[in-house]
Amino acid sequence: MYLTPGDPALMKLTSQGTAVTDELLEIEREKMGLNQPFMVRYGTWVMNILHGDFGLTYSDGLPVLPKLLKGLKYTAILCVAATVFSVVVAIPLGIATAIKKDTIFDNIVRILTFTGNSMPNFLISLLLMYLFCIKARLFPVIAKESVSGLFLPTLATSIPMISKFARQTRADVLGQLGEEYVIGMHARGVKERVILYRNVLHNALGAIITIVALQIRTLMGGQIVVETIFRWPGVGSLIMNSIKARDFPVVQGAVLILATIQVLINLLTDLSYCLIDHRIELE
Amino acid sequence: MKKLMAMFLAATMAASLAACGGSSTATTTAAPAAPAETQAAAAGETEAAAPAAAEAAAPATAGGIFHSVEAFPYASLDPHKDYQSWHTQFYGISETLFKITDDLSIEPWLAEGMEVADNVATITLKDGVCFSNGNPLTADMVKRNLERLGTECSRYAYMLDWTMEATDDKTLVITTEKAYPALINDLATAETGIVDLDSTTDFDKDPICTGPFKVKEFIPEGDVTVERNENYWGGPVNLDGAVFYKMGDEESKLLAMQNGEIDGYVDIAASSAEIYGTDPDSYDLYTVPTQRRVYAYLNSAQLPDSVREAIVLAVDRDQVAAYMNGLISPATGAYSPDTPYGKVQQPMWDVAKAKEVLEADGYTMGASGIYEKDGKPLNIILSCYAKRSVDTVALLMQEQLKAAGIGIELKVEEDPDGTYMSTHDYQMAMYVSITDKTGDPMNFLEGTVKSGVYMEVAGFGNAETDAMIEEVRYETDPAKRAEITNEIMQKLYDSHDMLFIGTYNKNSVLKAGAKGLGVTNPMGFYGIDANTSL
Asked: What is the pLDDT of residue B12?
C-alpha cells in the first residue's frame, strides 16, 4: 500500500474536488501521521494490531475494526447462504446429469450451467432485479438487510456457483462411473443407489470439496458487484471504496483479516480430506 | 441441440436487454441523444415551467415521506468533519449563517446580516432561531461552532486565528488579522453548519441542529432517515420526513425510480436521464451547471506557446458537451461568465486560427495530416484518467485536435494525483476540480493559480500574479476584487497554460409534481427543505 501511487491526505481533502493549498496538505499529512518514515508507521501499526487496535480510518476518523466486522458479518451471511443453496441444488443436479448423460435433460442442464457460468455477475443481478422486482413485484428494488433482502443477492451469487459445482460434480461422477470398481459392483449385484451414494459420490467428493472451498474463499473477499446492486453491506464495497480513497488502515486491516480467513478455510479443507479419505493422515 | 442452444441464448439476450433498458416503454420510445444545448434548453424550460405550474395548483401532497438515494456511504453526520456537512445539510438537518443562492449570490439564513468595517465583521443572528430540541441559537454557540470546525477540519484551521466575541445573544463580532472579504462566503459553506454543542451527545449519529428535519435513524454507511423538526424556526415543514437510501448502482436507481420506490434523486447518469426524458408525464428532469469543471493543463516546460495556443483554439467545447449527452456543459473559463469575476473567458473554437498560429511558428502540414517541424510530427501525450468520464472527454479532444493537425496519444492513469499531478511530468493533462466553491474566486486562485501550490502544475504561477492574488484576498470592494480577478484570469488565459473545457451538470429527477431536493442550486449540499413536497 505504501508503494501505491496516491496521497491519502490529498484524497481526503479533495474528495469533493476542491482545490487545496500546500500548507493545508502538509497539516493534514502531519495530522494523519503520513510524514513519519515507513518503518515507523508500519511498526506502529503492527504493535497496535498485536494489542487488538486496528486504528482509525483515514476517510472519517472512525475505528477500523467495527467497520470491517460489520462488513464481514454480512459477507459471511451471504457466503453461507449462497454456498449452502448452491451445494443443495448443484450436487443432485450434477449427479442426475451424470446418470442421464447425453439425454435431453443432460443437454438442457449443460446449456443452463454453461450460460450461468459465462454470464457476468452484474447482468445476472440486473436480470434478477428486473424479473423479481419489476415484473413479478415479489421484492422491492431497495432491499433491506433482512432475510427477504438476502434472497436476490444469494440467488445472484449462487447461479454461477451452481453452474460450476454442477459441472464439476457431473464430470467427477462420470469419471467414477467409468472406474472398474463400479463395473465390479454392478457385476456383484450391488444396488445402484449404494454404488452411487456410498461409493461414487464419496470418491468424487474430494474434487467437489476443493472447488466449493475455492469458491468460499472467493466469496469471503466480497462480492462487490452483487453487494452494490442489491445494497448488501458486505466487505467488498468497503474494501473497494477504501482502496480508491487510499484508506490504508482499512485496507491493511481487511487484508490481515481476510488472509487469516483464507488460511482457516484452507486448513478446514485439508482436514475435511482426512474425513472422506482415511488413507490421508495428519502428520 | 444447436437450435436449442441458439433459442436459449436468444431468449437470454432479449431478457438482458430488457433488464438494462428499464421499462419496455422507455426503451422502445427512447429518442436519439440530443445535443447538450438542446437538452439544457429543454431542462431550462422544465425549470421555468415548474414554478408556474406550482403557483397554479396547490402542492400535490401535504406531508408524506420523501424517498431518495445517495451514491456514497458516509459514516458520520458530524457537520464539522471533512465533507460530512454536505450530506447533513442535504438531508435538511444542518443550516449555516448564510446560504448560496441559485445564481451564486449570498443571502442570510440563520443570520440577519453582516456588517463589515475593515477587518471587523459584525454578524447579527435572526430572532427566534432555535435547535430541534427547542434551545435558542446564540452568538456564543456560533462562535464555539466555528472554533470546533477549526479544530476538527484542517481546511478551516485558519478560523482558530480569528478573534471571535459574542457581544450579546444575537451578535457575534469576528476580527481577522486583515480585512477578509471572503468571510461571508466561508460562512455560507455547508461545513459551517451549526450544531447544539451543549446538547448533542453523539455528533456522528445524531447532531442536534437547526434544520427543518432531525435525525430519526442513521445507519453508518447505510440509510439515513429524518423526521420533521416540530420546533423549526422557519415555519411549517411540509414533509413528515425523508429516507435516503445508500445505493451506488445507477441501474438499480433507475429501476427503483421506475418502480415508484423513490421520489427523486440528484446526479443521475446521462443514460438514465435519456430514459426519464421519454416519459415527461411521470418525471421532471432538472439540469443545472455546477462549478465542477474539467480542464487540461498545458505544460509550458514541454510545449511551446504556439502549440498551446493552437490546442486552446482547436477544442470545440460545444461539440464535446454535445457528445457527453448532458453530463457536461461547455465552459471557456474557470468561473461562470454570469459572475462579476468571470467576465474574461478563453477564445472559442477556431481551427483556422489554430492552424495559422502553428504555421506562423514554422509548422508545416505533413503527409499524415499532422503538422511537422524540423521533420518531427507534432504528437503530444495527453494524460487522463477514467473518473467522471474524463477519459471520454480526452478521447473527443483527441479527435478534434487530430482534425486540426495535432496528433494526440492518450495515456490513461488510475490516479492523476499519484502520477502526473505529483511529478509534473506530462505534456497535456486532464483534471477536474470545483473552481468556485462559495461564490468567491479566491479558492481557485490560491489553490490552482498561485505559484507553487499543488494544483498549479502548468508553470503559470509567477510573482506578479501572486501579488495580485494577495490583493484579491484582502480587497473589500467587490467591484475592484472582480476587476483584479479578471486581470489575473486574462493573464492565465493569455499564457495558454490551461484549457477549460466543460462544467459538470447537476442532473436530477423528481417524480412528476414533486418539488425540492435542491435541484435548481448548482451546489451539491442543498437538498430537502421545509418546502419540499411530494
From this structure: 45
Instruction: State the smallest CA–CA distance between residue B221 and chain A in angstroms.
Output: 8
B319 in Cβ contact with B396 (< 8 Å) = yes
Q: How many CA atoms lie within 13 A of A225 on its CB side?
A: 10
The number of beta carbons lying within 10 Å of the beta carbon of residue B354 is 25
Q: Which residues contact B70 (CB under 8 A, 6 or more apart)?
A: B87, B90, B224, B244, B245, B246, B247, B265
**Percent of chain B topping pLDDT 90:** 60
What A179-188 contacts at long range (C-beta under 8 Å, 24+ apart), as own/partner pairs, is A179/A203
Q: Quick one: closest CA in B to A226, which residue?
A: B249
For an interface test with B, the pick among A20, A119, A237 (most B C-beta atoms closer than 10 Å) comes out as A20
Q: What cell was used for A48?
A: 497496535
The alpha-helical segments, DSSP class H, found in B162-293 are: 183-186, 250-258, 270-277
Residue B483's pLDDT is 94
Closest CA to A236 of A119, A68, A55, A53: A68
Alpha helices in chain A (DSSP H): 8-13, 22-32, 38-50, 64-99, 104-118, 121-128, 147-177, 180-187, 192-194, 201-220, 224-229, 235-244, 248-276
Q: Which residues contact B301 (CB under 8 A, 6 or more apart)?
A: B424, B459
In B206-333, at which residue ranges do the beta strands (DSSP E only) sit? 213-218, 224-228, 241-246, 264-266, 283-298, 328-330
Cα–Cα distance, B14 to B7 (Å, whole number): 11
Spatial neighbors of B59 by CB under 8 A, at least 6 apart, are B238, B515, B533
| Confidence at residue A158, expressed as pLDDT on a 0 to 100 scale | 94
Of the partner residues A15, A24, A141, the one whose CB lies closest to the CB of residue B83: A15
Note whether ipTM > 0.85 here.
Answer: no
Determine the distance in angstroms separating the CA of A249 from the nearest CA of chain B, rounded to an integer: 15
Decide: B208 and B196 in contact? Cβ < 8 Å. yes
* Beta strand extents in B376-482 (DSSP E only): 376-377, 379-385, 407-413, 428-434
**What pLDDT score does B372 carry?**
93
How far apart (Å, rounded) are the C-alpha atoms in residues B143 and B84? 20
**Any chain B CB within 8 A of the CB of A28?**
yes
Mutation choice for A interface testing from B20, B74, B221, B225 by most A CBs within 10 A: B221
Identify whether the C-beta of residue A24 lies closer than 8 Å to the C-beta of residue B154.
Answer: yes
For residue B414, give how far its alpha carbon lies from the nearest alpha carbon of chain A (Å). 9
- Which ranges in B187-335 belong to alpha helices (H)? 250-258, 270-277, 305-314, 317-323
> Is residue A78 classed as helix, strand or coil in its secondary structure?
helix
Helix intervals (H) in B364-462: 390-403, 420-423, 442-444
More confident residue, A1 or A80: A80
Pairing of strands B241-246, B65-70: parallel
| Paired residues of B409 in beta bridges | B381
Alpha-carbon distance of A267 to B383, in angstroms, equals 47
Q: Residue B152, SS3?
A: helix
Q: How confident is the model at residue B26 (pLDDT cuts 50, 70, 90)?
A: very low
Q: How far apart are CA B160 and CA B11, in angstroms?
A: 65
Asked if A96 reaches chain B (Cβ–Cβ under 8 Å), the answer is: no
Q: What are phi and psi of B32, to 5 degrees?
A: -60, 155
> Where does residue A35 fall: left (phi above 0), alpha (psi -120 to 50 degrees), or beta otherwise?
alpha
* Cα(B453)–Cα(A20) distance, integer angstroms: 8
C-alpha cell at B172: 457575534
CA pair distance B534, A265, nearest whole angstrom: 51
Q: How far is CA A73 from CA A62, A68, A257, B249, B508, in A?
A: 18, 8, 12, 22, 35
CA-closest candidate to residue B195, choices B305, B93, B60, B289: B93
Q: Flag if B447 and A130 touch (Cβ within 8 Å).
A: no
Predicted TM-score (pTM) of this structure: 0.80
